[in-house]
Amino acid sequence: MCRDINATKEKFYEYIKQLQGLDYTSNIVFWDASTGAPKSGVEARSNAIGVISGFYHHIMTDPDFNACIDSLAVTPDECDDLTNALIRHYQRERNRVAKIPAKEYEAFQAHITKSAAAWEDAKEACAYDQFKPYLEKSVEMMRQFAEYRGYSGHPYNLLIDDYEPGMTVEQLDVFFETVKARLVPLLKKIIDLPKPRTDFIAAAYPIEQQLHLSESLLDLIGFKRDHGLFKESVHPFTMGVDIEDVRLTTHFYENDLLSAMLSTVHEGGHGIYEQNVGKQLRGTPIATGASNAFHESQSRIYENNFFRHKAFISFLYPKLKETFKEQFKTVAEIDLYRAVNIVEPSLIRTEADELTYSLHILLRYELELALISGTLSVADLPKAWYDKMEQYLGVVPSNDGEGVLQDVHWSEALFGYFPTYALGSAYAAQLYHYMSKDLAVEPLLAEGNFEPITKWLNEKVHQYGALYDPTVLIEKITGEPLNADYYCDYLEMKYTALYQL
Amino acid sequence: MCRDINATKEKFYEYIKQLQGLDYTSNIVFWDASTGAPKSGVEARSNAIGVISGFYHHIMTDPDFNACIDSLAVTPDECDDLTNALIRHYQRERNRVAKIPAKEYEAFQAHITKSAAAWEDAKEACAYDQFKPYLEKSVEMMRQFAEYRGYSGHPYNLLIDDYEPGMTVEQLDVFFETVKARLVPLLKKIIDLPKPRTDFIAAAYPIEQQLHLSESLLDLIGFKRDHGLFKESVHPFTMGVDIEDVRLTTHFYENDLLSAMLSTVHEGGHGIYEQNVGKQLRGTPIATGASNAFHESQSRIYENNFFRHKAFISFLYPKLKETFKEQFKTVAEIDLYRAVNIVEPSLIRTEADELTYSLHILLRYELELALISGTLSVADLPKAWYDKMEQYLGVVPSNDGEGVLQDVHWSEALFGYFPTYALGSAYAAQLYHYMSKDLAVEPLLAEGNFEPITKWLNEKVHQYGALYDPTVLIEKITGEPLNADYYCDYLEMKYTALYQL
Fold this sequence. Notes:
Distance between the termini of chain A: 68 Å
Oligomer: homodimer
Largest interface: A-B, 36 and 36 residues
CATH class of the largest domain in chain A: Mainly Alpha
Strand content of chain A: under 5%
Structural class of chain A: mainly alpha
CATH topology of the largest domain in chain A: Neurolysin, domain 3
CATH architecture of the largest domain in chain A: Orthogonal Bundle
């Protein structure tokens, strides 16, 4: 009996090796496409992605592979944690893919490659019409796929579950209602107060110096640059190719001191998570974050809870003043702190302040829920976007490039992904709260000493990779389930002090 | 009957799409590895390459695919030229791969990935011992594979045939004997003459200016940079990912004006070939050069016959003088021409002059032939290298980094590849001879007007891709088979004039 299990396990891991090899090549092709590949090569790339997906699908639907999963699934006590996590992973994955006819799944992958290229052009030209047919097809395909896969309650439950296992529309509705109930009043209190100065943020900051600064920040927070890559792309992202090959991008703007720094630290947080997963999980799909929201909690905690902290700004300020003498001539430390934490409803999610950020997510959540529900058409999407922007944030984009076309997600049919950004901030606040019981976080930030901080996260969060579901992991670490109050408390305290409300 | 053939063709092309998709991903992973991927990711990369090769092998040995090939092969008259070329291609490919047991073929691919990484480290450390076990394994595997595949005469015939269909050890022996008989005496005449000045070549040339210069040269000769990429790597190479995604690399040295320029124009010649293959061949393995030597003829014709030509130097000289005022203060046009065409036995093949180049190839041909024959051991290779360098070129490397470790080829088990470099120069000379009947090449070079020149090559050579075997193509273009005398005549005339022999 025991020998049988070992033989099955061995076969199971052999299949995983193949799936990981295919994943590796998809990742590298995507990295290549995002960091310089000529647009004229899109047809060949699209074919290759389709072919690789076809092989992936072929293994996922292989009766022998599925027999391995099913046979190991009945004896969880005789399997180690990793094997059990892998079984859960592939059971979910199987449900995500296997019920979709192979040809349609391949066509979908090929479609996404073209859609992403069309989105890039459409965004540049601020021409939603160029992208509309691709988005229509994506929505149609996602709805069709939900039918193939089956779902309980709302088809969107299926989509959010792909990124945040166990999450539902019902829970999300409650989450966003809570956030809206506490943060909108807070925003209202601040919105009419005098704005801090931000003129110096938009001075000229040479790209080369910004690059150097971003690299130093990555080194400071503990991202191992020699075990990865750091490049520029249109939309910043992180890719864990392997625990010793983790790739980040940022985007530099000459007239914005903060954009690249913030996105670098944000992606750096993702990257640190990927680099510090336990070595025994290497070469498996468990060598990544526990969920999308958990991943986002790590980028957010570095970007918001650490980088934007008064104590860290006191560390950063003299360094910036030294590097950018001219631009910082009349800038005091408090000016930098206020500018980094300015509250100002804006058009672009990735450059939104910490307080309004979740309202950007709320808007996207409601819109994609309506698209998937069929209560909103793709043709009406830009109008709906304008309306909700006005309603929640009081600002309206002047074109679709800074509106509905701003994010890459929908071009890749990543519906259900956006909510995890808001959940991530909530996890981050809860983790910061508990970290503060073990470490004197403020003095460490004031010294720019991230070693104990990153080590705490390595031990409490990173090492486990995706061994446990997010609901299990947050309780394991903090002794309680996700609690949105830590997030709202944190923001209320921070902005009350900052604006002397 | 006709309908049957069409159904078979359709299935055949469906398999080709899959093979091309796999090829695409291998190419991109190789490109990524050569242009920046962290070394720490080598294990994951090696696994992925092994997996992709496994799928490739799986299709190549698929009975259904092989039935398509066999069934179409019996009715060449009912198939178009492209289909017939594809059948020939896969029959050869099948012979190259299918007789090797799948596990061994996969292990070989994984070995090559590790071997290439080990070679890079060994080269940097000038430590042959670090690389030796990998090379031993490569030689052993290649000899074993030759047994699996079967061969007539010499096992090396099989290897050279992979790169230059139809070529044999017997023919190569004759070729190199001819070259040796005519070029060694020529070299002897020149070797003791006073050397031209080259001091200015080794002045400081800022990398950024060199990069700009290389880009201008690519534009000038007609490489479409927007349908490709141009980057830096340790060893310059060209990769045709797609006819609209052709990638080149070069390597810049601050204290060498010529190295990057020459390798850029060389790779540019390869790249122009890949970009101008007929569109109807796109997405098939026929959308490439007719053979390795034919490919090399295009890089060599741009590098040697065009770039090093007296007429082109008269065009280039004022531009360099303008860009590098300081470095060119005392440099006359004739100094540049002489320096570009200096004959000086040297250690590094890729930086060898046009005359001694083929002797570097002769040395490699003899050594790899001996390795494959089993008359030379991998352990004795460095010593044999030293001996032959002294014998043919009169110079001896001071370490293995500038000796046996200098080229990437053996690290990837590309035995049989080197001879194609010398054959390429011979094709180039023959093509130049016939081009001169149609075009006034010299005045065009003097104007830096490559348009008619590149167009002639597009029409005569490039458009056909690999539709025809090299022996057929050279006759189609020039009306006669490969004739080494054009090559020897060309070099004799050039150097006789230059050195006033």
